[in-house]
Amino acid sequence: MVNEINASNQECFKFLGFVDDCATGTTIEGYPILGNCDWLKNLSEKPYLVCAIGNPATRFALANDFKKHGFPFAKLISPSVQMSKYISIGEGSIICSNCVLTTNIKIGRHVILNLSCTVGHDAILNDFVSSMPGVMIAGNANIGKGVYLGIGSNIINDVKIGEWTIIGGGSTVVRDIPDHVVAIGTPAKPIKEHYPEI
Ligand SMILES: CC(C)(COP(=O)(O)OP(=O)(O)OC[C@H]1O[C@@H](n2cnc3c(N)ncnc32)[C@H](O)[C@@H]1OP(=O)(O)O)[C@@H](O)C(=O)NCCC(=O)NCCS
């Protein structure tokens, strides 16, 4: 995505590489794996970071840890995204190709909107929300901190989804959903509790 951004007229980034605790090779798609998280923390110069991990709780832990170590965060917005200028987007957030956002939307910090998501007017996506490909969020919905919206789920207008909840892929949320549950189906209903380690 950085190449796409640099090729457009947006802000330019020099992409240094990946930081990964689990990688086995030395490159990913031709870009270097620079080291692991411990290596990064010990750098004296602090480059801008984005944390591209889809699991909200893991992203929350890492982003907070790196913030404590004084790292700044970039915001990555694909040039193919369509959105009005009346949208606020917090640091560390990533908005992938072909997302469409209408107007008066608040996107918190470290939110990920994966490919082809749509977000309606006045919606609020709180910090650390992860929205998987093809999710549709209607107007005035309020998506709680750390919520994971599974692939292709639909959220109708005016509903509120509680913090750290998971909505299953393909589900349709038509009523408010509480904090800390996994909810699935159409209409989406909680099937179990979900308390990630945060
Ligand atoms: C909702 C979800 C998180 C549940 O995962 P889980 O906690 O491991 O639950 P299980 O797989 O044990 O499923 C529990 C039950 O719910 C059903 N179920 C699971 N996900 C479902 C879904 N999205 N819609 C409808 N039913 C679902 C299962 O069939 C199972 O029912 P059964 O007990 O009658 O067999 C997961 O299935 C899901 O939808 N994840 C989204 C993944 C995604 O978006 N990936 C995108 C990556 S880019």
Describe this structure in words.
The structure is a single chain. By secondary structure, the chain is α/β, with parallel strands linked by helices. The chain has two domains: 2-68, no CATH class; 76-193, 3 Solenoid (UDP N-Acetylglucosamine Acyltransferase, domain 1). Helix content is 12%, strand content 27%. It has helices spanning 2-7, 37-41, 56-68, and strands at 18-19, 27-28, 31-35, 76-77, 82-83, 87-89, 94-95, 100-101, 105-107, 112-113, 118-119, 124-125, 130-131, 136-137, 142-143, 148-149, 154-155, 160-161, 166-167, 172-173, 181-184, 189-193. A hairpin with a 2-residue loop joins strand 2 (27-28) and strand 3. The structure holds coenzyme A (COA). Coenzyme A binds at residues 132-133, 150-151, 166, 168-171, 182, 184-185, 191. The site of coenzyme A (COA) has 13 residues, from strand 21.
Q: What is the compact description of this entry?
A:
The protein has helices at 2-7, 37-41, 56-68, and strands at residues 18-19, 27-28, 31-35, 76-77, 82-83, 87-89, 94-95, 100-101, 105-107, 112-113, 118-119, 124-125, 130-131, 136-137, 142-143, 148-149, 154-155, 160-161, 166-167, 172-173, 181-184, 189-193.
